[in-house]
Amino acid sequence: MRDPSSFDDFYHGCAKRVTSHIHAMVGSLAEAEDIVQDAFTKAWQHWDKISHYADPEAWVRTVAFRIQVSRWRKASNRIRAHRRHGLPADEPALSPDYVAIIAALRKINVGQRQAIVLHYLVGLSIDEIADETGVAAGTVKARLSRGRQALATHLSDLAPQIRPIATEVSNDG
Amino acid sequence: MDEDFTTAIQRGARELADQTDLTPVRLIRAQGDQRRRRHAVAGVGLALIAATAIGTGLLRFSGPGQHSPVPPTMTPTTSQSASRPSSPTSPENSQSPDAEHTTTTPTPDASKPPASEHTSATDPKSLADCKMTQLKITLGQGGAGLGHSDLPLLFLNTGSTACRLHGYPEVKALDSHQHVMAQARQTPNGYMGGLVANSTPLPTVDLSPGQSASALVEASNFNIPDGSACAAYSSLQITAPNETRSINLSVTGGGCSDLQVHPIVPGNTGQSR
Q: Which spans does this entry mark as compositional bias, Low complexity (chain B) (predicted)?
């Protein structure tokens, strides 16, 4: 019913990639790893069904986004004293441009951030994003446009060295 | 033109992926198997005030400023269900003293197979619909997607005889003055779950005493389709199928638009398998 070998192949094929996508949303690798682990655990729980989906990776990504929002809600309701992760020391060595982008993404609205990540990082079309997030294509377009503008502001604040990117992004929006 | 941005974010993400240490897949599977056994609800809890009213059709509203102690829904379900693996009950955190009723909730029999695995019809033809007098309706463990909230409604048979649930509950969202803000659309499934496919026949769920069924309610956290902010629902008014009496359950969370309810299914998650 649930075939472990097909799940293992699926996991090894896309878990790192999905982790990088979630990292772009949450800004902490340790947190992204926790979330992705949780999402793949759910995928295995329901693998009899999910293995037949056209795009199981999209399912895992969607679930991971969902977990992430739940955590934000929970975190906002309590002091994060017990938080294990998220210290700078946990973070991997990354290029300054990318670090600046991640930092800027953290400053924009969640819906806009999701649209930006799905479009520019995951590579989905506007219609695909609309399907995956359950909102109208027009909403996705608006979020992308506003997200780009907001991002441009923060990128130029944060990282003067990549202002050219910010300017281009801004012009596009 | 944002090729530079695309290049930078994609290259950075690849570098990060290369530095990721994956949890061994056997541990992932072991954890998934464990959760399957526990019938844990997917997701980490959305803050919900599970004001419960016990099957009397009693309207009980938990007004603004009245907050429950941190409800069990705030903790991950995996720990919640650890001690009672097959428990079909919801947390006993009824918070309004006068909502208490003399009806006692049957203690679940741990040896009984969980409701989510089967529907225990004893006499499939003659079972009566579950009435509010024998149902305890509570909110289950919610989750959230980006811009979406969901939570299962749990229907526990507190009576002494088996009864049947089929179809959609009626759900209305109320504001803090108990004015109706929205009536849920009855849809087979939505962004957060429900039936696997639109074409799946609506399940008929026969509940033995102590068993529960569920139906998923979901809503958007912003106005559809323009994406603007909206005022969150304050409570949900729920009516079981083929019933006229309803109860109100307070909710917190972002749901405020595009309210939907999916069909009643076996188990506690509102998700069919």
A: 75-91
Q: How confident is the model at residue B224 (pLDDT cuts 50, 70, 90)?
A: low
For residues B100-117, average pLDDT: 35
Q: Do A46 and B273 touch (CB under 8 A)?
A: yes
What ipTM does this complex have? 0.81
Q: Under a CB-based contact definition with an 8 Å cutoff, are residues A120 and B27 in contact?
A: no
- Give yes or no for B196 touching A (CB within 8 A): yes
Rounded Cα distance, B87 and B116, in Å: 10
Q: Which of B25, B161, B68 is nearest to A41 (CA)?
A: B25
How far apart CA B254 and CA A148 sit, in angstroms, is 25
Contact across the interface for B33 and A44, Cβ inside 8 Å: yes
Phi, psi (deg, nearest 5) at residue B258: 50, 50
Which residues on chain A are in Cβ contact (under 8 Å) with B143? Answer: 66-67, 70
When mean pLDDT is compared over A26-30, B59-63, B173-177, the highest value belongs to: B173-177
Q: Give chain B's radius of gyration (CA, Å).
A: 20
Question: What values do phi and psi take at B226, rounded to 5?
Answer: -85, -5
Residues 6+ apart with CB under 8 A from B241: B129, B165, B166, B167, B168, B169, B170, B264
CA distances from B180 to A9, A71, B184, B234 (A): 49, 30, 11, 10
Reduced to 3 states (helix: H, G, I; strand: E, B; else coil), residue A130 is helix
CB nearest B13 (choices: A63, A121, A169): A121
pLDDT digits (tens, 9 = 90+) for B71-81: 322 222 333 33
**Domains of chain A, each with CATH number or no CATH:** 4-85 (no CATH), 96-172 (1.10.10.10)
Q: A117-121, B34-38, B56-60, B84-88: which range is least confident on average?
A: B56-60
For residue B94, pLDDT over 50 is answered with no
CA gap B262, A152 in Å, rounded: 41
Residue B88 carries which DSSP code?
Answer: -
Q: Do A66 and B143 touch (CB under 8 A)?
A: yes
Of A63, A71, A133, the CB nearest to B147: A133
